[in-house]
Amino acid sequence: MDHSSSRNKKGIDGNQQDAKQEQLDQYRIQNTGKPMTTNQGRTISNDEQILTAGERGPGLLEDWHYFEKMTHFVQEEEPERVVHARGYSAYGEFECYQSMKHVTKAGFLQEPGKKTPLTIRFSTVQGPRGSYDTARDLRCQGVKFYTEEGNYDLTTIAMPVLINNDPMKFPDAMHAYQAKSDDDIPTASGAHDRFWDYVANNPESIHMVTWIMSDRGIIRSYRMMESWSINTYLFVNEKGVATFVRFVWKPMLGVHSFLQDEALKIGGIDPDFHRKDLREAIDCGAYPEYELGVQLIPMEDEFKYDFDVLDPTKFWPEELVPVHSIGKMTLNRNIDNYHTESEQVAFNPANVVPGIDFSNDPVLQGRLIAYHNAQVHRIGPNFQELPINRSLCPFHNNQRRGPMRFRIDVDQVNYHKNSLANNTPYTTPPEEGGYEHYPKKVEGHVTRNRSASFTDYFTQPRIFWNSLTPVEKQHTIEAFSYQLGKVKSESVRQQNVNLLVNVDQELACIIADNIGVERPSGTHISVSTSYPSLSQANTPRYANTLKVGVLIGDGFNGKEVTSALQFLQKNGVFIEIISEKLGFVTGADGIKIKVNKTFLTSSPYLVDAIYIVGGNSQYQAKFMQDVLGFVHDAYKHYKPIGLASTGQSYIQTSPNNNLAGVVFAANNPNFPQDFTTAIAQQRFWNRK
């Protein structure tokens, strides 16, 4: 696997770098092979010792080189994001499938085949920048389109609902969700009293929490993450007709998740699992792809449905409001500098282009204010001038000065209106492309009340629960039991099962038994609706880009093993050769295979399947023990297991197990095909 930077790789269509990359190239600096200088350009003769009065004397204040170096070091970290602190970015492009001019005049959605460069940042929410990737959490996917009409930011999260339906409550939810202020514990976890106290006393939160406790909360990969805009926007066409719209990104590889045991342990084994997974896939040319879908509701149908179209704690069921795929995003380039291309990228849902506008969704209205303030606090009032945030189209206005201003505006005039500069920069009429807000009707008395239609807190959580398979329900029960089991307050635990009974009585009673509180009285609301689109059981499945750990020693059947590995690689499977030490293993027929991981540096938790070749080792007992450890964990996690003819002794057959997902090579000429099919299925829940 080539882990080199993808800096000089071309886009997937083989054309030259897109316009955004050409713009960024002006700021990319190569320091290799260059003489060291200070920030002022003075060459440096010594970068290892401070200036002193004699070899054993005190340091001198005139040591300007040390002063500059240390001053920069102690100030080189900007304030961390208050939420979404841990994240990772990549570059890509968006290709429009079909003209959407019938509903929007957004330029990047007008022509089939039109491509728009973009950057994307994936992130968790609760944990700080130094937390781990696989924590159970809601995740964000921020995409910045560098369109010809300016930057368009589309922010989405990995579930279609939010924890609050009013922006006033968001700070409270995050205060409760994050680590305690007295001891800063726990890190990247909602398994504590404060969060669940908030949930129990703010019932609108139970919908999102149920999604987080499902498999959706512990995704297998950013490449396999579905995400929704949550908020309701407006599409506006050239005729001035508006349509309610919500966006959803659907990964081409399908939507897949870890088990809770895997997510927790990978957090310790490899805290950077998701970012490594993304970076390695792009470097290998296995570019992650996502289709952009839109759900459209005519303005006149605002009150047609049982849910409020403006309520961000409610999803729009695909079975009622179909998803129309309008384009595809392909991530085809890794970042070169984490700080300047991921930490300093700044998103804002207010960054829209003509043809995209805002509804009266209350949380969206609150977000339009919050993001800009957050970016100014983090990286200053001129953050939009940083290379990663700079638009492709030129921008001209009367904003001047401020810290870290890059632009050198040579005009004398910085106000509007004026005569000295012929009233420029000038405004652009809407008919010539100037942005114009949709003239939606606004009326009502000043109030702090919310529509009664927002107070149906349990119908949709009930529908979501009904839509899960028995396996998915069991995983959700385990997650609730784990999280609430860590809550010290018996009262808070009891309050939560009393809340959950509205979603499902059996769910609440099982959890109550697991966490040592009374079973709640009452029962769930009378809703039997379910939607197939809500279950991951109906997602596409492919072997492509899944990782197989090959457990191998010397003396293997070279022809059999190399044939299987070649077939797997031909089908896009990532291979990890694991043995007791790095170097090579040698088959009985002299064939050598390079080992790239050892039992110490790998883990059954880090692969999607295992291929047990077995073989001989200098320390045979230890080798067999290590292999059996992989087999045990892979088997209990329902992963596919392939057995070479030399590896059969590592799986014991008996009437008590059905060995679902275990594929034998012995006397099976179709082993490579059968094993690849098993890898694509990923989990065998019927295994005993």
Description:
The chain has 688 residues and is of the alpha/beta class. It folds into 4 domains: 35-76, Cytochrome C Oxidase, Chain J; 87-230 and 249-293 and 325-385, Beta Barrel (Catalase HpII,  Chain A, domain 1), CATH 2.40.180; 459-537, Hemocyanin, N-terminal domain, CATH 1.20.1370; 541-681, Class I glutamine amidotransferase (GATase) domain (Rossmann fold), CATH 3.40.50. 26% of the residues lie in helices and 16% in strands. The chain has 16 helices and 18 strands. Strands 1, 2, 3, 4, 5, 6, 7, 8, 9 and 10 form a 10-stranded antiparallel β-sheet that branches. The radius of gyration is 28 Å and the shape is globular. Keywords: Heme, Hydrogen peroxide, Iron, Metal-binding, Oxidoreductase, Peroxidase.
The percentage of residues in β strands lies in 15-25%
- Specify the structural class: alpha/beta
Q: Can you count the helices? A: 16
Which whole number gives the mean pLDDT? 94
Level-1 CATH class name of the largest domain: Mainly Beta
- The parts where pLDDT drops under 50 for at least 5 residues are 1-16
Helix content: 25-40%
Q: Kindly report how far apart the N and C termini lie.
A: 35 Å
CATH topology of the largest domain: Catalase HpII,  Chain A, domain 1
Strand count: 18
Taking the sheet with the most strands, its summary is: 10 strands, antiparallel
CATH superfamily descriptor of the largest domain: Catalase core domain
- Form type: globular
CATH architecture grouping of the largest domain: Beta Barrel
Q: How many structural domains does the protein architecture include?
A: 4
- Cα-atom Rg, whole angstroms? 28 Å
